[in-house]
Design brief:
The protein is an alpha/beta fold. It has 13 helices and 13 strands.
């Protein structure tokens, strides 16, 4: 089987800039892009009341700056930070990093929950106790159009989640608001999925039923599975899959992901795959001391240093690498229609 060519981005779409921490960037200047990463994953209430012994903000900023500058030297030009509310997004803190590096950093909006939202959302919104418009939609649109937390940093990606609990009522709310924000602004959507449960198909169906063009949708963590039939179904429907956990050894081993990518490249799917790590310079969930012991390659430099050379050695063509790391990211990040 050979994949049909992915529809190209139109001229009008290609002209629209991509929002980054330093302002708009023309899509042609995005270059080699890591599409699913984090700078810092935090937990504001825990961090305030029970600080993590390994966390020092100034040291963390210096570590991130050094890591991103190293990525620049390795040829990476853009990193998408998918840290959204629910994962401790802090644009002021990441802004300190962005001001000191050459790499473009793209901020994201959305909400990270695979089950329930915070209590505020139980009372606010149409038909609820306090009423008013859907606050999630308003938040997402404000982050995209005006900037996050008064910073002026506009979100360039929407992030949503479904996992083992499935499409719970609150998860449906988040996805519905993301679809509305996408249709209004053209900002693309990426997901956290559970590939072993094949729930990317549920995400794809839910979002496309609400008008989302799958060309502007990434089903994240698809590479956790080597079920090629499942992955083909996502890509044949027009979505892009994220093979985006290289180095994350406790979830999927690199050899499995490399074999999966090579098999799909052989079938002609280079235009529907993006590669990344889902790494962080500091994460409260899996702190640096734990990562050094258990996942030593779960770093932002693992793809350019180790994985891409291995893909080349095992048959991936240079044009396939450029397609996955440059062209696909450019197509996905370029806002489509809307009024962002």
């Amino acid at each position: 089987m050979t994949a049909a060519a992915h529809p190209a981005v139109s001229g009008d779409e290609a002209a629209r800039p991509v929002a980054t921490y330093r302002g708009p960037v023309v899509p042609e200047d995005l270059g080699w892009t890591l599409t699913h990463e984090h700078v810092f994953v935090l937990s504001p209430e825990l961090d305030r009341d029970h600080p993590h012994p390994e966390w020092d903000a100034d040291r963390a900023v210096d570590t991130a700056v050094a890591g991103l500058e190293e990525l620049w030297e390795l040829g990476v030009r853009t990193v998408v930070d998918l840290t959204v509310p629910g994962l401790g997004r802090d644009v002021a803190l990441v802004g300190r990093v962005a001001a000191r590096v050459r790499v473009n950093l793209v901020a994201s909006t959305g909400w990270y929950t695979d089950d329930v939202l915070p209590p505020y959302f139980r009372t606010h919104g149409p038909g609820r106790l306090v009423g008013g418009p859907e606050p999630l939609t308003e938040m997402f649109l404000r982050d995209i159009r005006e900037g996050i937390a008064g910073s002026g940093v506009r979100a360039g990606m929407l992030k949503v989640v479904t996992d083992a609990p499935g499409l719970t009522p609150d998860v449906r709310r988040v996805l519905e608001s993301a679809a509305e924000a996408h249709l209004a602004t053209g900002v693309p959507i990426t997901t956290h999925s559970n590939a072993r449960l094949r729930n990317g198909l549920d995400q794809l169906a839910f979002l496309t039923e609400r008008g989302v063009d799958p060309r502007h949708l990434v089903i994240g963590h698809s590479g956790d599975s080597d079920d090629l039939d499942y992955l083909r179904r996502l890509m044949d429907a027009g979505a892009t899959i994220g093979v985006d956990r290289f180095g994350m050894a406790h979830v999927v081993d690199d050899e499995t992901s490399v074999r999966t990518v090579l098999a799909l490249l052989k079938e002609g799917y280079a235009d529907r795959i993006v590669l990344s790590h889902d790494a962080a310079f500091f994460s409260r969930v899996t702190p640096p001391s734990w990562r050094r012991v258990h996942t030593p390659h779960w770093r932002h430099d693992h793809l350019p240093r180790h994985v891409v050379p291995q893909l080349r050695e095992r048959g991936a063509r240079s044009e396939d690498i450029d397609q996955m790391m440059i062209a696909n990211a450019r197509r996905l990040l370029t806002p489509a229609g809307g009024t962002a």
